[in-house]
Amino acid sequence: MLSTYQYPKFDYIRPPEQSGAEKKRYPVVVVGAGPVGLAAAIELAQSGVPVVVLDDDDTVSVGSRGVCYAKRALEVLDRIGLGQPCVDKGVSWNVGRTFFREQEVYNFNLLPQPDHKRPGMINLQQYYLEEFEVKRAQELPNLDLRFKNKVLSVTPQGDGATLQVETPDGIYTLETDWLVVADGARSGIRRLMNLEIDGKIFMDRFLIADVVMKADFPHERWFWFDPPFHPGQSVLLHRQADNVYRIDFQLGWQADPEEEKKPEKVIPRIKAMLGDEREFELEWVSVYTFQCRRMNAFTHGHVLFVGDAAHQVSPFGARGANSGIQDTDNLCWKLKLVLEGKAPPELLDSYSEERVFAADENLLNSTRSTDFITPKSKTSLTFRNAVLSLARDHAFARALVNSGRLSVPSYLTESRLNTPDADVFSGDMVPGAPMDDAPMRVQGQDAWLLDQVGHRFMVLVCVSDASMVDTSLLASFTAVANGALTPEVILVSATAGTAPQGLRLLEDHTGRFAERYDTRPGTTYLIRPDQHVAARWRSFDAGQVSQAIARATCNLH
Q1: pLDDT along the chain (557 residues), means of 10
Q2: Could you tell me which of 314, 297, 315, 318 has the C-alpha nearest to residue 306?
Q3: What gap in Å lies between CA 364 and CA 358, rounded to an integer?
Q4: CATH fold label, 16-91+123-196+294-366
Q5: CATH top class, domain 439-552
């Protein structure tokens, strides 16, 4: 029991397969109702794909677990109707500070640019996110959320999978065209299918202590190396919702996890840090080790792995849940097109290719962070402490400080789905890049670019005056809009105006879009359903756009 949170208990409902209903095969079954599995199910269901979610529990995660949700994850959550409740409840922050012993040696800002809708990061206990997701899932008529349904066996087939599922009413059989596995780091389905997960377990232990206290600390991330209150080790402090503070104490590999979790061991550590006069209440305690591992491939026939079931990283850097949510963002639009017969199954191979690349980035950064935080030799420790000593006064040393490189989206620049540039551009919005946000106006109302795109292919065409778009160009817009994958064509202009019938107009009234996307009249961007850039040109050509969509959906023959 937590003093700040009341755990919900979700109803078990007897599955139709055990109630005499006619046996049916489902397009998609998702196993695991955690943050990643629910994100996948919601995105699929709201795009029109019927989906069943199986979970062996009947409540949300115990303890705060995942804490930090990065800007990119929030933008994905926005598209499934959950970004705002998370930001409203969570603690938004952009600044992190790093201390060596008693002195600050380094700080960073996750959002140095103005004019973005979302902060660099929010801190929110995982149980809140899961509760918001369950509520959203229950609003969708084609999403069947089944609690107390435990998968006992999985039999993959050439065109799907068959599951044996245990409930309080016994065992039943479930058939699906596609199985999405989101059952966590100790994935039972990965084990049932005898699939390996390779990598490294780091020889160190960390104590998580969530404490309730009233403090006027700024909304920032604080990380200490070798502080006087915990000498020779590292400590991390984060504020969460409800005045709950997350404190991570490095313990060393020799520490006994069960002993260290006892209140009589935890409370003195916290008092040494906060002082005897600070009142606090212990909320939740856990001990963990670092792991950096991934599966060789995330797709295995019609069984698709996402989140911690596919890859695991150390908590420093907030790369776990954030990368899992980006997995689902990459996967779901591809799975929908394959189910609809608008793309071949090989499009799902690109899910594994792109997200294995992203996982490797996360593993590399997480490993480097872990090596810096927990040096394994006297030489490494000497180097680290020298870097920290120099960082306060020298910029070159600050670049070497690593208290956990925080989660950022992957630039999928090597993806075979991209159409390479044929024209010269500057800036970061290269093919494969996650889109930057920008303020817009839509029919005189303030809006955000990322709220106007996503869920389907979209073509952004920059014009100097929307009302002056000529009829021949309109005809070519229509040619693209009537294609098999029906991209939407949107005009972008620096000035207000009226778009021709059937087209939307976004007004780039601050010039941020032009600045971030290096645009001028005629510049055209093709945007994937997951808000990654697929292609860009200096002038609009319906044939080029159609060919780029074919490439981005593996329909190029």
Answers
A1: 91 94 93 98 98 97 85 96 98 94 91 90 95 98 98 96 98 98 95 91 85 93 95 94 95 91 95 93 89 92 97 72 95 98 97 95 77 84 92 88 76 97 97 98 97 96 90 81 84 92 93 98 97 98 95 92
A2: 297
A3: 10
A4: FAD/NAD(P)-binding domain (3.50.50)
A5: alpha beta
